[in-house]
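Write out structure tokens for Transcriptional regulator.
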Amino acid sequence: MASNVNPTVRRRRLGQELRRLREVKGMTAEEVAERLLVSQSKISRLENGRRSISQRDVRDLCGVYEVEDQRVVDSLMQMAKDSRQQGWWHAFGDIPYSVYIGLETDAESLRVYEPQIITGLLQTRTYAEALIQGALPETPIADVEKRVNVRIRRQERIHAEHGPLRLWVVLDEACLHRVVGNRQVMREQLEHVAEMSQQPHITVQVLPFDVGAHPGVNGQYSILEFADTVDSSVVYIEGVTSDLYLEKAQDVQRYTVMYEHLRAQALNVEQSRQRIEDVAKEYAR
């Protein structure tokens, strides 16, 4: 469940406020970097929340922006302090997608399109183990177990008694037929998805093969939305060596429209559950 202080979200909010102060001052990131004798990329990373922000960074930036209200400075300094605290995921060590976990932990709703595999929040432990071992064949067993444990821990967001994550998943039909682990693993996994899809806050739709070309042919993506209006929606695209986060309104809107088309072309909820259950029965034979 979301903690009271989410360092990822604090960094993001602080970065947004620092960008606003810079724009009010009429300065470019390059000009600020020159004043502070740092790289322009550092200023950009501070503003997009992908880098930890120290209280010294805040103090220096407030000086450049000539922020005279001490209450504003103190508030930003406190946000910087909070942003350096560790989230629950840090207990598992170095997690490549820790920024995403921080966002997911604080999100109110999540829309996911998956073209190849069952989405992480709906995976069983045995499916997750087989998937990670197959996707990362040179990863030590201890690291595989760590990744699996993080994945299972993330699922607390959809099992929360109060304010669970609102999850909407569109699965390409290929996800049902790609055998991860073995047939028994797949049967248990699909039965789990069918069961979870009956929860009022979880919607699962299957995009059938006969749809043909569709807006999701370019691959997996997720759209995260937040309860606090100051937190803009984020499109997350997972990569092999690095991930992509899109926050510009026009980018989010484009992916949102794509998702609406996917939902419209997919089987409805009841048809999707029936398709999942039918394939699960095939694995039991």
